[in-house]
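Example 432.
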Amino acid sequence: MVNTSIKTTKSQEIFGAAQNLMPGGVSSPVRAFKSVGGQPIVFDRVNGAYIWDVDGNKYIDYVGTWGPAICGHAHPEVISALHTALEKGTSFGAPCALENVLAEMVIDAVPSVEMVRFVNSGTEACMAVLRLMRAFTNREKIIKFEGCYHGHADMFLVKAGSGVATLGLPDSPGVPKSATASTLTAPFNDLEAVKALFEQNPQEIAGVILEPVVGNAGFITPDAGFLEGLRELTQEHGALLVFDEVMTGFRIAYGGAQAKFGVTPDLTTMGKVIGGGLPVGAYGGRREIMSMIAPAGPVYQAGTLSGNPLAMTAGIKTLELLSKPGTYEYLEKITQKLADGLLKIAKDTGHAACGGHISAMFGMFFTAGPVNNYEDAKKSDTAKFGRFHRGMLEHGIYLAPSQFEAGFTSLAHTEEDIEQTLAAAKAVLSSL
Ligand SMILES: *Cc1c(COP(=O)(O)O)cnc(C)c1O
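Predicted structure in complex with pyridoxal-5'-phosphate:
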């Protein structure tokens, strides 16, 4: 690792070996630190708001395994419930009562969800919801937004070249043009662009899918009226509105963005928090639509490990902890302190910056902003972000290793953790 003051001998050794064993040395790309430079640290264990790496360094964590750890890593109640569940076996491949419990919790919490299907990841949930959108409407085209991530399925891997919003060009080799030909894209927060797509493709658009608050292009909030506008447009054109709440679900409010903003989509995808750190995804929505899923209806979707008792247990316990009074007030309080503090320090130290937070999700771009969509986000000084990221790491703060990822806080983060983080940011930003 270059220019580092922390001891990283073991991290280097393990990651070095990993590069011969797995592509890029990782099981998921962003973990490799490509966009911030330097080598990743290799984790040994996590607890509460903290990570320990294999060299014994401790960090305050703002990634939270990309969202699931909203109650803090290895929460004792989650671990204890998992121990009990483990004694009964790891997977049934058959109905289990725990599925009912988590299903009821999700249905009670998320306004759009009347029925739910559990899967194993957010990617799976989004793939399945796309098939369902098409089956229900008997239309093929969908609209997604530039910079929004809906997992790695072929149909979603589209970043429209500027101005070519209607030509779905695949982002990755191996994605056939035919897979993305029906994926139309528009800039986030641009209702006029969506309206134009509906007019250019009459009776052809199955629906609109979006991250209601974007986290996968950095943190970008919806403009006032944007979500409401999409709700109206989709209704007007007989299309479905789908909120991908894999990140925002149970994070920006217990009922997700739809509860926060009071806009109810037809279908919702979930993941991350509802698995409490185990592999879970889910999709749900109006009963009439969900009843089309096999075996109730003809739309096929299945999973060997789906609804497995360990994942259900971690999800149930996590939601129980989150539904206690005061949790979201606490998350809001500490995250506001962090996000406001970071922005103020950046400005005070002479850096162009903008950012914000909603509940336990935050972000800061190195550009004066405002950032309303992916084009704006790309104006950010990513080289500076790379140096900021490395500096924070050396000060014991673990941020997502990309400018284009949101940050996450948890119930385990204390005011002192936030103060320590801001002190580190002050030291690092003053030196950039
Ligand atoms: C993480 C994420 C996904 C993909 O979920 P995986 O569990 O990583 O497959 C999909 N949509 C959004 C909004 C996400 O943040």
